[in-house]
Each structure stands twice: as structure tokens, then as C-alpha cells.
Amino acid sequence: MRIIILLVAVLALVSCGRKIPPELQAALQKQFAGEKMETGWQFVKVTHGFGDQELVADILVKEAIPGPPEAQQARLKGEICPAPAGNDAFWKQLQGYKLSVAAYTQDRKFTVLVDCDNPLAMADGGK
């Protein structure tokens, strides 16, 4: 058990130390920062995931998302992930990156994680 905790801590430190290119940081801030808690969620920050080309948008939600995990993920995909269609400029900036959303209340142990659908992912080898 201690080994697992140590491994998670090391991975968290490694992912926190990597810089996100400023143009990507700006695009993600613009995409997510306009939402406030009145809508039920608020953008917190963007971090690197465990892969070099993975970005994770941290979203704070007022209340736990109801339903089973599949329903929670579908709701995040539909309400928080940028739509695959109509956001061409945004997705072009993220081409080559995988975008995920991690939604949680103050208690992060109930985080719901979902991968957003990037319409340009197939054009760059499925990253």
C-alpha cells in the first residue's frame, strides 16, 4: 500500500512540474473560465495528465453529479467538454493533445473523469 501511495505522489509531482504552452493555457482559460458556480460548476485550472500530450481541466462542482458513473460521464461530456463541432479554432489549437475533464466537489475522492472528443485527433494519429 505504501508503494502505491509513493508512486501516486511521484507521478503527481512529475506531472505538476511540466509546463503547459502559454497558447494552450490561454485557449483553455478562454474556453472554460467564463462559467461560474451559478451553472453548477467552475473552472479551477488545467494540468498535465500522466501522458505528455494529455491535458486535464479541473472543474469544481457544487454538488456530486447524480447517477451511475456512465451517466455522470455522459453529462460531463455533454455539458462541460467543448463540442466537437463548431469549435474548430479551439480544437485546432489542441491538435495533438488529449483533453480530459476532472469534475469534483470539495471532496476530490469522488472525482469524475471523462475524455473529451477531439474531432482532429484522428488527423494526428489518434493522440
Automatic annotation (TrEMBL):
Specify the protein name: Lipoprotein
The scientific name of the source species is Methylomagnum ishizawai
